Amino acid sequence: MNQPLHTDTSALPVLTDIVELETPLSPLANLLKAAGDPLRLEILRVLSQDSFGVLELCRIFSIKQSGMSHHLKVLNNAGLLSSRREANSIFYRRAYLAPDHALAALQQQLFATVDTLPIADHLREPIRELQQERSQAAQAFFSENADKFRAQQDLIASYPVYAEQMTQLLNNTALRDKKLALEIGPGEGEFLAVLAQQFNQVIALDIAANMLDKARAFASEKELRNIEFIHGDTQSLPSHKVLADCILVNMVLHHTPSPADIFQDLSKALAPGGALLICDLCRHEQAWARDACGDLWQGFEPQDFSRWAQAAKLDEGQSVYFALRNGFQIQLRQFFKPTNF
């Protein structure tokens, strides 16, 4: 009588032993997998013009951190997101593949398609609340530290460090008219003297009343009589019917809750053929600047400004970069509003 055949099952592979091998199609599979979930598409939509921390995204979407972390990992592995650490938080933003990457066209089409969809109504309120909290934090910092503004600013980049470069960029910017210039966040007002000499009228806009008082005192001391001071943010510009030939933003955007929205606001306040000139920090890893100087952003990648300008229908002009001794790097950027806008 034949004996039954006994097999040592311990030698057989089980499902958990099977791993997927990387193939040339793996990046494509990861991208398609990441894009195949409605929630992940909503995350990409929300991150189209801003950067949010993990806990902020949990708050926006009302889901637990473990669930959000899973979705962010899938998107990150697919090359759709990048992350950065700021202090004790990790912030996520969209990642953009190099133009010559095999999946670059597909990624760009995915982003473009997602951006045609409106942000869901139930997400708008928590986003607005978060941006308002960021704005209030910035206002509180400058209200509490107005008397120490110069010393804190000098920790990163003092006015003389970038003023000459910014003046040169302004002088090299071809403008159709020089009737009105607008400076966002004029600080203690030094650059207003430069603008007052070149434009018929200058507007200084600031969200911090005490900082605006400092700029007003500087203008009075220098007898600058063609300057108007407005207390408010860039969203208030339409109510003042501002249409500027040139807008300048010196070392301000890293203090603002949503730089992408600033680009949109300023594009509307810019006359056709007008120029937007920006001076700000390049991306850095010196987290102490958040507490010491009230920074909301640890600088920006050059492509950040390029994408936000493009979304605001502005054409890119010159770019200047220079490094400081303390390890920071500054970028000066020039953008134009098309004459046929």
Task: Provide a descriptive summary of the structure in words.
α9 (190-198) links the parallel β4 and β5 (201-206). The chain is 42% helix and 19% strand. It is built from 13 helices and 10 strands. It is globular, with a radius of gyration of 25 Å. Residues 1-21 have low confidence and may be disordered. The chain is of the alpha/beta class.
Low-confidence runs of at least 5 consecutive residues: 1-21
- Which structural class should the secondary elements be placed in? alpha/beta
Counting DSSP H or I runs of 4 or more residues, the number of helices is: 13
How can the largest sheet be summarized?
7 strands, mixed
Q: How do the strands of the widest beta sheet line up side by side?
A: 6-5-4-7-8-10-9
Element order: H for helix, E for strand: HHEHHEEHHHHEHEHEEHEHHEE
Dominant shape: globular
The average pLDDT is 85
State the end-to-end CA separation: 94 Å
Q: Measured on Cα atoms, how large is the radius of gyration?
A: 25 Å
| Helix proportion range | 40-55%
**Number of beta strands:** 10
Tell me the β content: 15-25%
